[in-house]
Amino acid sequence: MGVKMTNWHSITKEEALQELDSALTGLTKKEAAKRQKQYGYNLLEAKKKTPLILRFISQFKDFMILTLIFAALVSFLVSFLHGELDIVEPAIIITIITLNAILGVVQESKAEKSLEALQKMSAPTALVMRDGLLESIDAKELVPGDIIYLETGHFVPADARLITSVNLKIDEASLTGESHPIEKDADKVLMENLLSAERINMVAATGIVTYGRGTAVVTATGMHTEVGHIARMIMEDETPMTPLQKKLASTGKALGIAALIICIIIFLVGILKNRPIFEMFMTSVSLAVAAIPEGLPAIVTIMLSLGVQRMARKNAVIRKLPAVETLGSATVICSDKTGTLTQNKMTVTELCSCKGKEAPDGSTGKFLLTLSSLCNDAVLQVSGKGKHQNVSATGEPTENALIMAAYQVGLSKSQLDLLNPRIFEIPFDSGRKQMTTVHKLSDGSYRQITKGAFDILLSECINIYRGNKDAPISNTLREQLTRLNEGMTAKALRVIAVAYKDYPADSSFPARLKNFNGTQKDRATGLEQGLTLAGMIGMIDPPRPEVREAVLTCQMAGITPVMITGDHVTTACAIAKELGILTKDTSMAQLRAAEIRSNHPDRYTSPVPQAMTGAELSQITQEELVEQIKDYRVFARVSPEHKVRIVKAFQTRGEVVAMTGDGVNDAPALKAADIGCAMGITGTDVAKNAADMILTDDNFATIVAAVKEGRGIYDNIKKAVHFLLSCNIGEILTIFVAILFGLPSPLVAVQLLWVNLVTDSLPAISLGVDPPDKDIMKKKPIPPNKGMFADGLAFKIITEGILIGSLALLAFIIGIRFFDSAALPGDLVRNSRTVELATLTTPYVGRTMAFAVLSLSQLFHAFNMRSEHSLTKIGLFSNMKLVLSFIICAFLQIIVISVKPLADIFKVVPLTPAQWSIVLVFSFLPIVVVELQKNRRNR
């Protein structure tokens, strides 16, 4: 911003005005214009957008894609030089990689959307003093030193130091994580090292005024505000690659290198055997096509897209395709508390009198709720009837909870107000920590009701409510009531005490009310004394009922749930213990020590098991956090920077981190995490645009379903990779061995493309819809550093590839020896090593049988991929899409061979029933062999 002072909360309001060279009458328009040039507009900077063409080009950086482009170009060049211009193969390859690039651009996350959403949150207008006059201006025109006016319902347009405050409460939940509005006090001067949530003499941009009014002097605008700092972190932090992206990139690079090596070897072998150079180029390109699963990127994209659709039906909307499988690898889920683990709605959970707990529908409970509803400014709204009835409350969250609790036992605030009209009130004051109203009762008498902090209200009470007859409060009774209050606070309940005082109808009380013309303190001194304590009401933002089971499921699945919140450590730990996130016993004394330690970190050193405050976090280095973080499950009173540090500390330890959240304060951590999960209902646009996934029902339990789906998708992708690579190795060996031993090529390039792009694709996609294993959530997460080919998968791929290749090659030799002998030169039959490749330029049975066996054996082999268990156990028809794809592909394969025009294109000949019988026996053998292996392993 340019203004040197940063700790505005630690100086007086007069010093702030002096530092900013401002006054209560505001800036002049001339001075404001001058500062506008110096500081710029009160807007967030937009990250420079990457041009569409560059985003498209960046999709071709993958090593496998570059290898395929090279293969396509070589294929075209060789065919052109050989005088046989063939554009089919390169055209198919280029089409596939282009479509894949387009999909990548469409699905690509745009970081600037997060910043655009932040800009939308800025208040469009602001009430400001200019030239001594109050006027409304565009919020972007605010400058440091401006005097702004804040009223109920206003957005806070910039960071500012309060000058005046009258019962001012600001909702900063989206920025600080606090679950309730923060009471502000302009007269306070605070310590320097305080978190944003604790700076009660400051207001921050994007806050909402929920109660009261105030004035403030602007201290920071634009990118120099708290929300601007968050925006800068979003701009600077890069989203990490998902585990699947890393593994597929590694796999593609390995396959590309292998393909090039094979091409070179085959080319050199061909040259040594005096084969034509051009023909060897074509053969090498064909092998490159066979070695690389060209359809793999598209198949993976399709499988992820299908997963996205399934997850959307389960209330989890994916914004980035590769993020689908990341949850399946998640080892830590860092969750915000407010609105994610809890309902973000204060709820009355306990009523107490001097006798102990009271039932809400009992006589004492109803009396207590009646008093708290009358001494209340919230408004109850009821719409609809019967099953369609909707009940809500508008006002301060604590007061909303009180009138909602009263409504649930048949007490309507509007009816209570009609029967007991309010004739006088003393608004809530942070200094007194209580509120008072006076009502005229139906019998003509008057009742004063006061509600507020227990300790302060108890000191004003002389009697205790005991039904029809009040009793004096003894010292023993005061101690008993204090213990009841401590028991409620130990459960992290916010305790509201309620007291009253009755005045007879013939008293001079109504006349006395008119004489209270002094200060609010004078009024309180005359009224809020000699009261009768009715009881205490405890409330909390309760956990979502389904979250505890979701947390347990995560723990069974080897996933560590961690709570990260801006709320107090006492409340956070109480919720965490109830949900099962905190598993060790944490005493109330430890929680209190942690609460005090968060304000005075230098005075307290005894740790709370598994819980750390933001103040403690600020005292340790990132290296120390990385070392210690494994012992903690709750982080309370944290700032946005702390959240990012926590996420990155887990990542440094090798964890795959999922982060849930809904507020502006969560956005940087959502983006830094391996996968960010934003809340769809309560989530801000900033959080949604920074996230990879949006939970449309704001339900933590939805994450469990998403984790299960993610694991299933990863398993299915692994099945597809297993299937494609074993098939492609079979194709490579078929050609490689034939050429190595002087045989003509069993397959031509167009046949290889047909097998790879048609026969392989449908079965592979069908494997992508296999249902997850029943015990998938009882397995540990897949380590991010664990290769895709671990646990013997590489060996399986190679051996199965050898099996498929051997069967195709055997069919090729049988076809040549027994069915082509009459049509081929005699020396081929006698000694295949002496035959030149050029002597076989027309279709023949051997090549057709090899083509058929290679295709059909892969179709049968797809069923082997479904599970480690036998097909008889999982059921042959439990994946009907795979059965359907088998039928379709087998039919297409038969048509290609049997229909003359198609046979000419694919350079094959129709087969006789005897030849088809051999093909079918060979093609079915992979099922037999793999089933025998499964039975042996599972014994």
TrEMBL record:
Pfam families given in the database record: Cation_ATPase (PF13246), Cation_ATPase_C (PF00689), Cation_ATPase_N (PF00690), E1-E2_ATPase (PF00122), Hydrolase_3 (PF08282)
One Gene Ontology MF term: ATP binding
Entry superkingdom: Bacteria
Localization, UniProt: Cell membrane
Membrane-crossing residue ranges in chain numbering: 63-81, 87-106, 254-272, 284-306, 721-743, 749-769, 802-824, 844-863, 883-902, 914-932
InterPro entries reported for this sequence: ATPase_P-typ_cation-transptr_C, ATPase_P-typ_cation-transptr_N, ATPase_P-typ_cyto_dom_N, ATPase_P-typ_P_site, ATPase_P-typ_TM_dom_sf, ATPase_P-typ_transduc_dom_A_sf, ATPase_P-type_domA, Cation_transp_ATPase_P-type
Gene3D superfamilies the UniProt entry points to: Calcium-transporting ATPase, cytoplasmic domain N (3.40.1110.10), Calcium-transporting ATPase, cytoplasmic transduction domain A (2.70.150.10), Calcium-transporting ATPase, transmembrane domain (1.20.1110.10), HAD superfamily/HAD-like (3.40.50.1000)
Chief location bin: membrane
GO cellular component, one term: plasma membrane
Keywords on record: ATP-binding, Cell membrane, Membrane, Nucleotide-binding, Translocase, Transmembrane, Transmembrane helix
Domain Cation-transporting P-type ATPase N-terminal: 7-80
Membrane protein topology class: Multi-pass membrane protein
Entry's family note: Belongs to the cation transport ATPase (P-type) (TC 3.A.3) family. Type IIA subfamily.
Protein name, as recorded: Ca2+-transporting ATPase
Natural source organism: Anaerocolumna jejuensis DSM 15929
